[in-house]
């Protein structure tokens, strides 16, 4: 029943979406190619950089008149040529590993610019280097200068392309001890509020800020996520005087309504996973946040000038449906749409059709819609048709066939999810459940065990579909169909992060096949049918 309902919903959404680009490839080549390519591509836990991959990039840049380009709706992002050199063949003796590294590099979305060229302060660049971030990604190269020039922005780029640092870095350029000037700050003021739809994502963003601020200054960022002790959060606000808060809508709104969060003079409001934050269940809390964060008392509500005196709005997601464009136009002041290789005024984005290419079309107009271009090119997609009672067994065979080491499997209902964990464990496969019914502490313990490799399969629901960054995840399985292609994109995007290879397998029943076909059209990706036999992945011929 639930899957049928989901199917109907998808159809309703689907008809309004345009069909994407299809490509077909040789079955046999795919089969063996995929089996060979599976597995962790990197055992290093640090961030993936050109250097960590054994490459260095040569950069050439050109300068243009950014202001005029912006006015005319043309990309402000220069796309310089990039050539990569192998550093030294002696550094990498294993030929297969070398091949994998080349593949990752080819797919990694690194821009041919350095962080310092983007206008970030030297102290912050130094800190980035220390943390292993050497080269910005394409979307960071596009977003950072736009935010530093005080533009309100909607940042859209595929999953795992580095959107978090795309806003964290410009904020740290202006706020806190790494900022550009050494103007003394008003200790009482919160300068940036970051809103995320889940605790896990909120905590992940906090860690990103903390990493760069360092142990001495990490108290300057405060988490305000739900499920944690509220009084302790309020005490920390009083004691630590943070300049940045990151939290979930409910908890931020609650503490704000209690008069314990003073955000009227806040400079930045970030809405991470903005399309999710627009959902009905967040409506009231988001209303309060939008009304109170960065709304200086005495500022007139009318006119762009007055609005500009208020906060800078930064909205982020891999999927940007037109509802987000519409909302961003009303919340922002002349906002820009920032994608990996283009920056255009949001006004030039019409309501129809979809973002099919990151290039600006000849008429200078970009078109926005959700799922196309939300998935990284490094993913391979399959679906396997089976009977419902064989789902968990198929999952187990799929993991063996692909030799996947770090698997996220999505289901829609908690009970089925628990059953699946039980069955996998009974067959000797280390599995754990993660869903909203668990306490915050249990959730973070499970995630830690999964990140450490103590758990091979994480059975979860939509809770983990957005933003969760586990670079080692090499396989995503949909054990039940996602509600629509937007949900498919976010689930699938938990693998193949930042140029790594990843596989997405959807295990479905015969009546759901048409949904898969619809979804591949909407997403503009090829989703091949497959089976798992004799410990191998067998890709079926097209009908
Ligand atoms: N310039 C960079 N160099 C190396 N690693 C980076 C860089 N920028 C980001 N990363 C790493 O890339 C990974 C993905 O980044 P992030 O989580 O910000 O992606 P995202 O685009 O927000 O994904 P999603 O849409 O799923 O939320 C993270 O592990 C992050 O630390």
From TrEMBL:
Record's catalysed reaction(s): ATP + H2O = ADP + phosphate + H(+)
Signal peptide range in chain numbering: none
Pfam families in alphabetical order: DEAD, Helicase_C
Keywords noted in UniProt: ATP-binding, Helicase, Hydrolase, Initiation factor, Nucleotide-binding, Protein biosynthesis
SUPFAM superfamilies, sorted: P-loop containing nucleoside triphosphate hydrolases (SSF52540)
Residue ranges constituting the DEAD-box RNA helicase Q domain according to the UniProt record: 113-141
Domain Helicase ATP-binding: 144-338
InterPro entries on file: DEAD/DEAH_box_helicase_dom, DEAD/DEAH_RhlB, DEAD_box_RNA_helicases, Helicase_ATP-bd, Helicase_C-like, P-loop_NTPase, RNA_helicase_DEAD_Q_motif
Location of the motif Q motif: 113-141
Enzyme Commission number(s) from the entry: 3.6.4.13
Annotated Helicase C-terminal domain residues: 394-538
Any one GO molecular-function label of the UniProt entry: RNA binding
Entry-linked PANTHER family: DEAD-BOX ATP-DEPENDENT RNA HELICASE 47, MITOCHONDRIAL
Protein known as: RNA helicase
Organism name: Handroanthus impetiginosus
